[in-house]
Amino acid sequence: MDTFDNFQSEYGGIGDDDTASIISGYTQRTGVGPSKVTLNAADALDLDALSIADDHVANRRSGLANDVAVSLDDDFDMNFEDNGIGVDLPEYACRQVTFSPAASPFLIESSSHSYCGIHSPASVVKCLVCSKWFCNSRGNTAASHIVNHLVRAKHKEVVLHSESPLGETTPECYNCGSKNVFMLGFIPAKSDTVVVLLCRQPCAAISKDISWNTALWAPLIEDRSFLSWLVTPPSEQEQLRARQITYAQINRLEDLWRENANATLDDLEKPGVDDEPQPILQRYEDAYQYQNIFGPLVKIEADYDKRLKESQTQDDIVIRWDQGLNQKRIAWFNFPKLESGEVRLAVGDELRLRYHGDSHNAWEGSGHVLKIPNNISDEIGLELRRNDGVPVDCTHGFSVDFVWKSTSFDRMQLAMKTFAIDEKSVSGYIYHKLLGHDLEPTVLRTQMPKRFSAPGLPELNHSQMYAVKSVLQKPISLIQGPPGTGKTVTSASIVYHLAKMNPGQVLVCAPSNVAVDQLTEKIHATGLKVVRLTAKSREALESSIAFLTLHRQVAAFTAHTELQKLIQLKNELGELSQPDERKYKTLVRNCEREILAAADVICCTCVGTGDPRLSKLKFRTVLIDEATQAAEPECMIPLVLGCKQVVLVGDHQQLGPVIMNKKAARAGLTQSLFERLVLLGNRPIRLQVQYRMHPCLSEFPSNMFYEGTLQNGVTAPERLRKNVDFPWPVADTPMMFYQNLGQEEISSSGTSFLNRTEASNVEKIVTKFFKAGVVPGQIGVITPYEGQRSYIVNYMQYHGTLKKDLYKEIEVASVDAFQGREKDYIILSCVRSNEHQGIGFLNDPRRLNVALTRAKYGVVILGNPKVLSKHPLWHYLLTHYKEKQCLVEGPLNNLQPSMIQFSKPRRTLNKSMEQFRRHDYSDAEATSGAPVLNDARRAATSAYESNFYRTHDPLGYIPSDVQSLKSSTSGLPHFGAAASFGPSKQKASAGQKRATYASYASSIISQDVAGAPGGTDASSVAGSQFEHNGSIVFSQSDRLRRRNSLTSMAGTSDIGSISAYDYKSQDSVIDADDSESQYSHSAQSGVTEF
């Protein structure tokens, strides 16, 4: 029988009564090997008092503020922030106190580098990685000090104090010896005085020992602290007399320890330790100021990425050798560090293999990743560049390093430099628009096509047609494409007309290769000549548009017979002689130039537009898809290639750029160019008809994120599968929220979360879909946490009741990985379930929006309503599901309406939404004849004084014009019914359109950010650096004044130098042959592709 079923129960997991009955103890013996032993009588503990619930600790718990994450699991340590922990202690407990060790038995020597100074042997443990001691007290933080340290430092092994009740003991797994405390848990054996330590996976999951019940397994770390029977929390008196250290000080100290292991709290007071970069502005005086602000942020992010990559060396790698069709050697191996989620790997990344064993001479070689771990295999495939001296006879004793290249960051810096010094980089109008200067709206003189749909593509609906028509007449356009509204078809139609109407080529790009490939395929369908430019490291990859890639077109270029012969010879031998190689490269470059020159459209990633092969080309028109997922400097790379007309397509209601460095993120690098232009008054044109979701699935996202404007292009019968027998609570409403009450746990990496109850129920739901006839490729499992993703994959393999191969084909991925994609059925595992820690970046509205809008035919959400309902966004979602009778509990074969009472939200949406407004612009607004500006909003009081204003803060998706809301008994905001989709839609006259069009392009920054009495002009938002004098018009010649502003350049006195930001790899010179993918991660993962 599935032992986890006993643990979780059919009704969604362990309750307080279940856990309170688990008796715990610790019997790991000091010695060389793992063991289970019986407690000595002299050391016997009161086992009846060793409850997991541990009231002594629980009394000092409290909640904490949550923040939006900048990467997959970065919200983990954000949950450790201060929030008045210790409310039961006197007020003076948080004050800084200083006294000597002799005066207090509770303080350790000043030379020790722990946090608070408590040193009671029963309350402290030693980190085995850094040899520092930490206590099990929370102090002023939401986690105990030892757990705080282990998470921040990414350390995982500890040893108890020799004078503690359990002696100098290292907790480790009884079966496999693993010492990862985040993986370890205990099981009471049948003997009352014995417990067994087992790791969560694989030992606890597969153990069949009859002397213990694995269903009772529970982690050693609960609610961010060690269980009290293992490490005793300090007494209240000890905590009062200890040094009071804050969460911020802990973070800063841990950062210092990475550079200096002997740093102390006193070092935090030294100047320069906490320097923050200058935050971004909304408006810039000139391009030098622009570079002066963005340049350091890009460098900070680059330096952080370099440190992270270069720290990921993995030793003791076992290699399996193979040979590719091109005769190159391929190494297959596992890379355990990827499981921690600290660094992400993508196809095309460069890795270095090293061998220093006894069976072969020392060797090292680098190559590019061909295959990354997936549900089917955890192996990585690495194709080596050279075959010389490869130790193919050796399989053990290898090491793997990441090879960091600065190409993508260098291209961002070069683009900003070009923007500042090259007057032909962009047109004068685009230049001033990008800097935020107010300009009179401009309409391009162009011959409009009679038909806006493009050949080979579906017919456009009214909002898509309006978007195409509007874009063709404007030098800068923003298009917002909510989920399933056909923005790829719209973009391809726009590109078709731009290519036909204007001379020269159209440059099409996006931050990710996936988005570029999808758009390339649609554009090719229109009959245009398309070239897909890829990084050299991705040339071996197969895809549906591989025949359009530049290297494939070169290989098929029959006009050059000599080149064809050399290509054939290279494929047969793998390598050419030096003279032939030189001739081959010359012929290839010439052929590439011919193909690129003959193309109508060139498609590549944003970073790929900095490829040297495009450096001599100028592109009058640029379209950037998924523009809201790219950092602003990334968007600048394609724009400075001579752009005179730009189209940005995206959705700022969905996930934005992911910035790994927190200082850069705080300074505003997470704000996309699309968002900044929206704030400056450039109103996006919104596509309004969605063709993906069942109407019941689109209702909540439409009301909550898009003011109820989304119309359904599909009907309910079209999105109902009668032959799929799944127990939906309401037969014709394929959605449900499945109540799960199991507790969250820290994952093996120490930096993520998992929920075993939800994982078990995910497997049951997947199996139910299989039995109903749904194939694996139609199901997607979304979870925000890497720890849960990994656990679900393994759990389904171990416990799935059907063939394992079926479960391997199920895609289990993060919200980020699913953006821009769809599945027939989506299962969302929320993971977070705790008493005090909050829900992390589940509180990010954009993340929820993406997760809820991936499914076509049905959605199942698993979560703890009691915890989630504390947050207003989730409270509304839960209320919505409850009103629809879709909030359920119980076994799948007998689901019942949940009777759980929701928690009261800590903050109301109505109160919050007064500070926000929507910046979207639909064709209905454009043709209504109503004024766009709202004088009432102009006179409002600003809630923001910062130069950096975000459009995607939690709860920022609710419009402030509450009059448009219809209240319901549940309080769920409902907007007026959207106009029905069809030909009966009333169109405004051409005169109305022109009048409205001329009015909305002017800056409405005072409307977007409410001002002080009398209104806030743009200068108060942009900061004192730029004196704003209303609407002004700049000519191209006005840009010459920048030559007198060299003093504003950051770190350089030479207009032709970017030495302050130049950090190329010391062993790498970027040339035409070094344009391969050196940083080709998925943009959804927080990195850049090219």
Uncertain stretches of 5 or more adjacent residues = 1-74, 80-113, 910-1088
Strand content: 5-15%
| Biggest beta sheet attributes | 8 strands, parallel
Strand order, largest beta sheet: 18-19-17-20-21-16-22-34
Summarize model confidence as the mean pLDDT: 75
What's the CATH superfamily of the largest domain, by name?
P-loop containing nucleotide triphosphate hydrolases
Query: What best-fitting shape do the alpha-carbon axes yield?
Result: globular
CATH class categorisation of the largest domain: Alpha Beta
CATH topology of the largest domain: Rossmann fold
Count of distinct strands: 36
Topology:
Layout: H1 3-8, H2 16-20, H3 55-58, H4 75-78, E1 124-127, E2 133-135, H5 145-153, E3 158-160, E4 184-188, E5 195-199, H6 200-206, E6 218-219, E7 221-222, E8 225-226, H7 236-241, H8 247-259, H9 287-310, E9 314-317, E10 320-323, E11 329-333, E12 350-355, E13 363-371, E14 380-384, E15 398-402, H10 407-421, H11 428-435, H12 462-472, E16 476-480, H13 487-501, E17 506-510, H14 513-525, E18 530-532, H15 550-555, H16 561-573, H17 578-598, E19 601-605, E20 621-624, H18 632-639, E21 645-650, H19 662-669, H20 673-679, E22 685-686, E23 689-690, H21 695-705, E24 711-712, E25 735-739, E26 745-746, E27 753-754, H22 756-771, E28 779-782, H23 786-799, H24 804-808, E29 811-813, H25 815-818, E30 823-829, H26 845-852, E31 855-863, H27 865-868, H28 872-883, E32 887-889, E33 896-897, H29 909-912, E34 921-922, H30 923-926, H31 935-938, E35 965-966, E36 974-975, H32 990-1000, H33 1005-1008, H34 1018-1022
Parallel strand pairs: 16-21, 16-22, 17-19, 17-20, 18-19, 20-21, 22-34, 23-24, 25-31, 25-32, 28-29, 28-30, 30-31
Antiparallel strand pairs: 1-2, 1-3, 4-5, 4-6, 7-8, 9-15, 10-11, 11-14, 12-13, 12-15, 13-14, 26-27, 32-33, 35-36
